[in-house]
Structure formats: structure tokens, C-alpha cells
């Protein structure tokens, strides 16, 4: 039995409802009834990277880094395939010289990061000590 099971249903058109355990996630290639597959992938990537960043910070000695906000940018090629992803992280806690070590740890922890081909792995910048 697989570790992850998803049932994806498209009754008509280009919208798909994905049943993931007790959750439902709508994705629509035309963006009329939900985010596109590329938008959902990029959002999932950021949603995975944030907790990975928190764990990385914890392993670098930070107990609580406060709020994290990620501005995600993604470029598509002429075939609407993702060709570039960037994360601009804004972190409440001041991380000092530990930022690059935390990012490196987070990249190693984030499962979505590991699943993407190398040229799609996000370019990451961090602004710490942000007063939200």
C-alpha cells in the first residue's frame, strides 16, 4: 500500500477535485474554479518550505522564529511549464549569520524541494528581524 493516496476526480472540463484523506483540494487548469496546477505546486512548495525552515532554525539553536511570510515568484516557459521559482522569506526573528545555514538545512528537509529537478529548486532570499 502506498504512503500517500489521492483520488482525483474531474466530472467535466478542466477542474479537478482531489481527495486527500479527509481533505479536498480543487485545482483547475483554466483557473476558473481554483488555482492552476502550477499555482498549486508552487503553493505546496512554499507550504513545505516554511516548516522545513522552522526546523532548520531550531537545529541552529533558535527556539521560536516567530512569523514567516514567503513571497513566491514563478516563471513559465512558452509551453506554460515552470522554469523558475523564487522565495523571498520575511522572518520575524533576527537570525544573524545563521541565515545561510538555516536555508541549507531547510532545503535538505523540504520534501517538495527534494522532489523537484534542480533547475526548478527555488532561489531563496531571507529578510530577518521583520516587524510584522
UniProtKB/TrEMBL annotation:
Gene3D superfamilies: 3.30.300.20. Pfam families: OsmC. It comes from the Archaea. SUPFAM superfamilies: OsmC-like. This is OsmC family peroxiredoxin.
Amino acid at each position: 500500500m502506498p504512503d500517500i493516496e489521492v483520488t482525483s476526480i474531474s466530472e467535466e472540463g478542466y477542474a479537478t477535485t482531489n481527495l486527500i484523506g479527509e481533505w479536498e483540494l480543487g485545482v483547475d487548469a483554466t483557473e476558473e474554479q481554483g488555482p492552476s496546477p502550477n499555482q498549486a505546486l508552487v503553493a505546496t512548495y512554499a507550504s513545505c518550505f516554511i516548516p522545513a525552515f522552522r526546523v532548520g532554525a531550531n537545529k541552529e539553536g533558535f527556539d521560536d522564529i516567530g512569523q514567516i511570510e514567503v513571497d513566491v515568484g514563478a516563471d513559465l516557459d512558452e509551453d506554460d511549464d515552470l522554469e523558475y521559482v523564487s522565495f523571498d522569506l520575511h522572518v520575524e526573528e533576527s537570525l544573524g549569520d545563521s541565515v545561510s545555514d538555516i536555508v541549507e538545512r531547510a532545503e535538505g528537509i523540504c520534501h517538495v524541494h527534494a522532489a523537484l529537478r534542480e533547475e526548478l529548486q527555488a532561489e531563496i532570499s531571507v529578510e530577518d528581524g521583520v516587524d510584522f
